[in-house]
Model the fold of this input.
Amino acid sequence: MLSRKRINTNLPKSRRKTVSIIASAFLCLCLITYFVLPSSKAQNTSSTPLHKAPTPLYRDPIFDGAADPVVVWNPQERSWWMLYTQRRANVDAADVAYCYGTAIGVASSHNNGESWEYRGTLKLDIERGMNTFWAPDIVFHNGQYHLFVVYIPGVRNHWGGKPKMAHYTGKNLWDWQFKRFIQLSSDEVIDATLLQLPTGRWRMWYKDQTRGSITMMAESRDLESWQVSPEPAIGGKAHEGPKAFRFGGWTGC
Done:
């Protein structure tokens, strides 16, 4: 309940007048807050209902270990596609073996990302046996898709192996042809992210494990041959892989 505090009548007349004005103003503000703002809030809520996204937004139904996602528009299916590292999180494995032997999972959305449906995995085999794929990134250039993904032969119980950056091309997002391993700053690079610069050149940021897991950078005109920058893009302590993006006219990483 709102109430008006009594003014001290022992104050001088001028002081009593000032206090009365302040008290009246405060009372008006309370009345506005009490009667006007709730109705406005209710009106906004009813006219613009918000969609509550599920938490988590997506769970891989096979291994429950979706990681390192990249989202791309699929014009053939008229839907958004999410490609990700399919970590085997629900498998009882020794140490970090659930992070190896991973495929690249695919999920699609026809409602602008509000919900996702599992579609399977990409066929990227280079060698026989069970091998490891991590952290995909995709760009579209000159009529075809380019997929850059980490490749590690075999499966391990502990962190190790020699990760290489593999380059694939395809006319759609299902069928991929292996092109080459990209030569970058070392033979142990992971987590690539790409953007095309205003000059038309492509820039790749990635993590170099031989340099303390810092972010390095390379540029290319054709997405095939790459010129590595000798200086780190992000130095300092070890950190997770970068993700480059554009927003509001700015480029971030």
Notes: The CA atoms of residues 89 and 220 lie 36 Å apart. The two ends are 52 Å apart (CA to CA).
